[in-house]
Structure formats: C-alpha cells, structure tokens
Amino acid sequence: MPGDRLTAAVELGSPGAPPDAVAHGSVDTGHQIGREVHALLDGRVSRAAAYGPSFSLLWEMSSRCAQGGKLLRPRLLVDAFDAMVVEATIDPARRGIALRIAAAVEILHFSFLLHDDVIDDDLLRRGAPNLIGELILQQGSGVTGGDVPAGLQATRNHLHWARSNGILVGDVMLSLAHQVFARQPLPEGIRVRLLDLLDHAITESVAGEHADVGLSDGIMPAELSAVLEMTRLKTATYTFELPLRAAAVLAESGPRTEAAIAAIARRIGVAFQLQDDLFSAFSPCLEHGKDPFSDFREGKETAIIAYARVTSAWPSIEPRFGAVDFCEQDGILIRDLLVSCGAEEFIRSLVDEHLRAALELVSTDDPVLPGPLVDRLLQLVDTLESRRF
Q: What is the pLDDT of residues 245-258, one digit of tens each?
C-alpha cells in the first residue's frame, strides 16, 4: 500500500542515536503499540459479552478489523517522543504512557475510518472487507443491494444493519480513545493539554468531513481553496499534528517547540493527503486498498477535481463523475482526462510546494527543535518526496 514507505520512515532511529533510543524507537515500537491496542480492545470483551452474543460478536469482529494496520500515527507519536527525550534519561513510566496514548490515537483513527466508510458507502478497507463488509458477509445474504461490490451482496435490511453497526462501533471507539487520554497518571496540566489536543483533532476532523460531504454533494462551492482547507482539516490535524504535538507535550517540550511542530505537521499532512488523492485516482486499487475509482464513483470533491472544474475537460468529466450507473470505463475516461487537462501535474506541484515548505520549517537555524527530532522529520519529508507510483 502507498503508506508502507512512509511508515518505514518512522520506524528508523535517528542517525547517531544511542543504542537504547534506537531499540525504543525502531525495533520494538510496532510490536509495543500493537500490544497496547490489543490490550485496550481486549479489555472491553467482558463488557461486550454482558450485552448478549450478538453485541459480543460485533465487538470481536470490530477488534479484529481495528488491528493489523500500518500504525502510521502511533509510530509517529512514539518516534517523536523518543527523539525529544533521547538526550535525557528515558522514564519507563512516561514512555509507557506515550505507548498507551499512541494506541488511543490508533483507536481514534479506526473510529474515523468506520464513520468515513458509512458516509462514503465503502465496503473495502486495506484491500479487504471492512467491518461493514464483514457484517454483510456474516449475514450470508444472496440478494444484491445498492452499491455493493461483487462478492459482497446484501438485502436492504442487512446493508442498513451493517452500516448502522459501523456508526455505533465508531462511537464506542471514539469514547475509548477519550477514556485513555483522560485516565493516564499524569500531572493535571499535561493531561489537560493532551485532552485539548484530542478535542482539537476531533473537532477539526469533523469540520473537515462536514466540508467534504458538503463539497461532494454540491452544497458548498467547490473552489480549490475550500477543498485544500477541507484537506487540512480532515487529514493533517489528526494524522500528523495530533501525534507530533502529543509527543511534545509528553516530553514536556515548551510551547515554541509545540508550535513549530504544528506548523510542520500541517504542511506534511496536506502533502500526504494530496498524494493519497493521486494514488486513489491513478494507481491500481491493490496499491491503495479501496474500491476501484471510488473517489470518482462517490463524486468526491478532491483538489484534482477542483482544478479540473476550471479546465476545458470538465464538460466531458462532469456527466460521469458520481453518476448513479458509474462503471470502470467511466473511471478510465476521467483518469485520462485528468492527465490531459493538467490536473495531475498541478496536484503533484502542490505536493512539492507543501513538502518544500515543510523542509524549510524543519531546516531553520532556530534551535527550537531538538536535533534528533530534526533528523527524523527530515527523514519523514524525504520519504514523502519519494512516495510516488
């Protein structure tokens, strides 16, 4: 998948880091986070069982779907935390808290994915059935319902059941993430700062999703500036800003360090999402793990489409973009037109612009960022620059 190489960047220890920092930051981090995620989900098993076998099975399926991802966001958090405390004595208790907060960020991510899949009518995630798709398969229905890919068939009631459960599990996961942030044994000031970051990330992500739906449904004017702001809100805040700023808070860095990290995270986050839009539009579905041409089928108002709207290609794209009877040939046609009208090249230039800006912010002579963190952020930008198809 496209995120593999990006994930690899946050698995590496910074050049010249002491052996103990590398051991914390690279070799075992993924396993440590995975164990924390599993523990959080497993801790709810008995509570789920108390509500009967149907809800217990739903929680079991949800827990399975929530695990096995690339852990990009929690890895960023722990890796940045290690970089910011590498020159001091690492407190095992504080690092354990960082791991649990990182696991909660992954739970938050899964909550957003569940709600997003319902909004977008998606049944696949990471190249396999998502929770909604799994619930449809479990029902074993043989009657085709609307917008259900081959192999995933459902009656209207089963489809409604599956999507409703996606919303409900997403709500529980959101609550679980908040509980983890709120219950860590931290000084009150640090815990409140973390809770404020969580609230900020949730609010901006919801505002971004609100704009995404409004733009795609034609309720809001689809101007490029509005689409780019939606991109920042929906992705950059919780994918990069939340984990990196949370790491700074846990490492007890000052407000100037946190502000500098936030500015870098926003640039990286927008570039990352624009790259994902390119992958979804132009790469094989096996690479991005979603339904083929899903953004075109759903009429998603990405920056690529916003640019295409002001070109001579738009009259040829518009009739099939988000069409009820959208088919693969429509996707191929739209993809080719986006290339010929210059939309693909323009978005690639925007990606480069945001990455250059991030690089400038990281490379500043202002010593507000610790050296090991600078090394890792530079490595992250470099990995994003090579994230091509």
A: 999 999 999 899 99
Per-residue pLDDT at 388: 74
Please give the average per-residue pLDDT across 38-43, as a whole number. 96
CA-nearest of 240, 300, 226, 305 to 270 is 240
**Which tokens belong to 12?**
């590496």
| Tens digits of residue pLDDT in 61-110 | 999 999 988 899 999 999 999 999 865 556 889 999 999 999 999 999 99
Give the model confidence (pLDDT) of 256-271 as tens digits. 999 999 999 999 999 9
Query: 3-class SS at 123?
Result: coil
Alpha helices in the chain (DSSP H): 4-11, 19-22, 29-42, 45-49, 53-66, 72-85, 92-120, 131-139, 156-183, 188-216, 224-231, 242-250, 255-282, 285-288, 294-298, 303-308, 314-317, 328-340, 343-362, 371-385
Instruction: Give the DSSP H or E segment for 129.
Output: strand 128-129
Cα Rg for the chain, rounded, in angstroms?
Answer: 21
Tell which residue, 240, 236, 216, has the closest CA to residue 226. Answer: 216
**Residue 38 CB burial class (10 angstroms; 0-12, 13-18, ≥19):** middle
β-partners of residue 124 are: 129
CA 242 – CA 205 distance, rounded (Å):
11
- Measure Cα distances from 103 to 67, 168, 173, 233, 283 in Å: 11, 20, 12, 22, 30
- Residue 242's alpha-carbon distances to 73, 80, 170, in angstroms, are 9, 12, 19
Find out whether 230 and 208 touch, Cβ atoms under 8 Å: yes
For residue 8, give both structure tokens: 């690899």
Q: 271: which 2 tokens?
A: 């570039």
* pLDDT for 143: 41
